[in-house]
């Protein structure tokens, strides 16, 4: 629907006002709700428009509202999402909606869907994990060969954090895609793998090393996410069971990293864990 200039002026002003829970995305939902209620903003002055929008601004409660929320112009910032933005009871519904927007023709909606999905997993993980079917639409996205590699980090993070071990193969497949094409989001892969099945980090580290060329600083910086995630594992059984695998990875990293102080610090932690595991055998 085409709105008169007064509506656009009010929307812009409210978006800049820094009011809690009011931003371009929740205002887009307000417009949908105003239209659905039969309210004609064209017949209102600017003060009346502002009141009507503020009364209706909020987070989506339907797929149509979610579409408007995600399509709103600016990139969605996690800082704009308040801790109580989405209640536990609605988390599975959001997971269904967001999976449908990951391959949306609108790149802005895709990007915002990934941001909101990450927030949802970080803040409502238990609610998602408690509903066995909540992530089924995302599993379909993960299994679709046409799914963009840009979605792989979100798939690994979501299914790793809130899925089950049945998701292992698809999680590993998409983790490898991130390592090959999207190193910027390797932190999401590290978190998802460590939560789903810590030994998967070994496979991911080996794959990363196999696909690292030379001493590219960016590659080592992003690969540190996987290495740090492994170093954070405190379960001594892990280090005893996978002693040989981790020792081999340490040797390879030392050869490739040279005098990289960041890598050396993490390797020092890993070597101490390996030494403790060796003493316990």
Please describe what this structure looks like:
The relative contact order is 0.06. The protein has helices spanning 5-16, 24-36, 46-56, 63-71, 91-101, 107-129, 136-143, 152-162, 168-181, 186-196, 200-210, 217-231, 236-241, 243-257, 261-280. The model has no long low-confidence stretch (mean pLDDT 89). The protein has three domains: 1-58, no CATH class; 63-193, Alpha Horseshoe (Leucine-rich Repeat Variant), CATH 1.25.10; 198-281, no CATH class. The termini are far apart. Helix 6 (107-129) runs parallel beside helix 8 (152-162), helix 8 (152-162) packs parallel to helix 10 (186-196) and helix 11 (200-210) runs antiparallel to helix 12. The longest helix has 23 residues, at 107-129. Helix content is 68%, strand content 0%. The protein has 281 residues and is mostly helical.
State the name of the first-level CATH class of the largest domain.
Answer: Mainly Alpha
**End-to-end distance, in Å?**
70 Å
CATH topology of the largest domain: Leucine-rich Repeat Variant
User: Any idea what the radius of gyration is?
Assistant: 23 Å
Strand residue content: under 5%
What is the architecture of the largest domain at the second tier of CATH? Answer: Alpha Horseshoe
Low-confidence stretches: none
The average pLDDT is 89
């Amino acid at each position: 629907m085409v709105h008169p200039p007064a509506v656009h002026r009010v929307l812009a002003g409210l978006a800049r006002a820094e009011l809690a829970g009011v931003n371009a995305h929740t205002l887009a939902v307000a417009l949908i709700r105003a239209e659905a209620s039969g309210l004609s903003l064209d017949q209102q002055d600017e003060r009346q428009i502002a009141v009507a929008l503020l009364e209706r601004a909020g987070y989506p409660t339907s797929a149509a509202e979610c579409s408007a929320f995600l399509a709103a112009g600016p990139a969605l910032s996690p800082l704009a999402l308040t801790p109580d933005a989405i209640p536990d009871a609605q988390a599975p519904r959001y997971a269904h909606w967001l999976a449908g927007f990951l391959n949306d023709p609108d790149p802005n909606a895709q990007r915002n869907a990934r941001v909101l999905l990450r927030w949802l997993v970080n803040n409502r993980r238990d609610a998602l994990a408690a509903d066995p079917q909540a992530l089924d639409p995302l599993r379909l996205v993960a299994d679709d060969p046409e799914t963009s590699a840009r979605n792989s980090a979100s798939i690994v993070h979501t299914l790793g954090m809130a899925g089950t071990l049945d998701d292992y193969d698809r999680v590993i497949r998409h983790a490898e895609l991130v390592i090959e094409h999207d190193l910027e989001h390797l932190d999401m892969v590290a978190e998802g793998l460590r939560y789903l099945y810590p030994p998967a980090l070994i496979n991911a580290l080996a794959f990363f090393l196999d696909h690292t060329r030379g001493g590219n600083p960016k590659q080592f910086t992003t690969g540190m996410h996987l290495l740090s995630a492994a170093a954070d594992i405190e379960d001594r059984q892990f280090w005893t069971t996978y002693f040989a695998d981790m020792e081999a990875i340490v040797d390879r990293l030392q050869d490739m990293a040279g005098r990289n102080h960041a890598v050396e610090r993490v390797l020092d932690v890993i070597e101490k864990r390996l030494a403790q595991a060796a003493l316990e055998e």
